[in-house]
Amino acid sequence: MESPPPVPVVCAIIRRNTHILLAQRPPDKKLGGLWEFPGGKVEPGESPETALHRELQEELGCTVRITQALAPFVHAYDWGSIELIPFICELEASSPEPHPHEHTALAWVERGELHRYNLAPADVPVVGMLM
């Protein structure tokens, strides 16, 4: 039996000067308590860029400008695999400050300190891309 194709998921590496925004997953969700780059699933018929803007509006109430797309990659979990599509972004000048609508906490982290956070496994390779 063939395994289903990976679920496309976008994530935002939101930069502010030398800091990057991390979001902590709620304890009652998959990977609860772990930190991640915010984002979410790409809906059918939606472009990754559109999905990113929608997810950030829903999760953080903010708007961003995409400055660079990083190489997508597949990450396998016990429950299935995702194709993670990372984007480097900056907050739009007119954007409200990000607020954790669906996350437990947010943190602006120095790039060199990202490894100190307990990251969701699929987000770990993204840190390597940023170094």
Folded structure, characterized:
This protein has 131 residues and is an alpha+beta fold. 15% of the residues lie in helices and 38% in strands. A hairpin with a 2-residue loop joins strand 1 and strand 2. The longest helix has 13 residues. The protein is globular, with a radius of gyration of 14 Å.
CATH topology: Nucleoside Triphosphate Pyrophosphohydrolase
Gap between N and C termini = 39 Å
Q: What is the top-level CATH class?
A: Alpha Beta
* Rg over CA atoms: 14 Å
How many β-strand runs? 8
Strand content is 35-45%
Mean pLDDT: 96
Helix share bin: 10-25%
Segments where pLDDT lies below 50 for 5+ residues?
Answer: none
Q: What best-fitting shape do the alpha-carbon axes yield?
A: globular
* Helix-strand category: alpha+beta
Number of domains: 1
Figure out the total of helices.
2
